Amino acid sequence: QVQLVESGGGLVQAGDSLRLSCAASGRTFSRYAIAWFRQAPGKGREFVAAISWTGSTTNYADSVEGRFTISRDNFKNIVSLQMNSLKPEDTDVYYCAANTEGFDLVTSYEYEYGYWGQGTQVTVSS
Predict the structure, then answer these.
(1) Using one digit for the tens of pLDDT, what is the confidence trace for 32-84?
(2) Measuring CA to CA, how many Å separate 2 from each of 24, 49, 69, 117, 125?
């Protein structure tokens, strides 16, 4: 089992950058693909980015491609999301999640992720 805790959210202005972190507990962290999702009030979760076990494969939503970068450090059990050129429409609660399908998949399907953190709020003002 893996416990996930997000941090790094905050209030920034459009064009600014933020770096989110997802800290994991559990010795098997390196065997889970990890993804970031985001959710606005009253809406479903939206896929943002995912990274494979070793970090060799990544996947991004079109809306963040070229602005966000996902990375991981399996020695420190941390997955990071570097967010640059932030826009007001990036305002959401951001969640990290571990893929529990048993394969090294960087999919965008929410149902494949069985472990979730509590979320961190990102607010981008115009």
Answers:
(1) 999 999 999 899 999 999 999 999 999 999 999 999 999 999 999 999 999 99
(2) 6, 19, 23, 10, 34
